[in-house]
Amino acid sequence: MRLVKFVLISALIFFLLLLGIGLLMPSKVVVSRAINIPVPAGRVVPYMQDVRKWPQWMQGLDSNQIKTINDSVYQVGNLTIQWIESNANHMITQWKSKNGTLQISTMRIITDSANAGCTAQWQFEQPLGWLPWERLGSMLNEKIMGPQLETNLQQLRNKVLVTP
To answer: 27 by DSSP, 3-state: which?
Structure first.
């Protein structure tokens, strides 16, 4: 009986310790990448605003995976992507997976008038719950999503530089 009591109390203390550490971490995680593109912003924006052009520069995305639900909602594989806001400088979308994970994607175009080019920035923001494994697991987002964003932005740069 003592052993069972010891194990239960130890598990409770361990859970509370993880909970405390998790609550010290931010309630949302942001992964952001940017790339300079030596062309006018007007040549880059169409590739970011049009979901049907995403397969031309997003790694692993096939145009057959994109299904239009309505003017602002698309089904891309297991994700539902909904446009929240779009203008010439930034595009904000909400990405929701089948299991309910929600991320906000922001794509920005920052004009560099001095060099007649622009900077394309892409970021994902994910709100986190209070459970310790959600907060602690979010530390992997940077390692997983960061390289993907870099690769996709580099492919966008290559696509825009090749296309007149």
So the answer is: coil
Report the C-alpha gap between 111 and 108 in whole angstroms. Answer: 10
Query: For residue 7, is it within any domain?
Result: no
pTM of the model: 0.81
pLDDT digits (tens, 9 = 90+) for 11-59: 999 888 877 877 777 778 889 999 999 999 889 999 999 888 999 999 8
Give a yes or no: residue 67 inside a domain: yes
Token pair of 36 as six digits: 């300079």
Residues spanned by the domain of 68: 27-162
Q: Is residue 17 part of a domain?
A: no
The whole-number pLDDT of residue 153 equals: 95
Is the sign of the CA dihedral 50, 53, 58, 62 positive or negative?
Answer: positive
pLDDT class for 157, splitting at 50, 70, 90? very high
CATH number at residue 152: 3.30.530.20
In 24-138, which ranges are continuous DSSP H helix? 41-49, 132-137
Residue 32 and residue 107: Cα distance in Å, rounded? 10
Q: Is residue 72 a contact partner of residue 66, using CB atoms and an 8 Å limit?
A: no
- Residue 9 forms part of a structural domain: no
| Main-chain phi, psi angles of 17, to 5 degrees | -65, -45
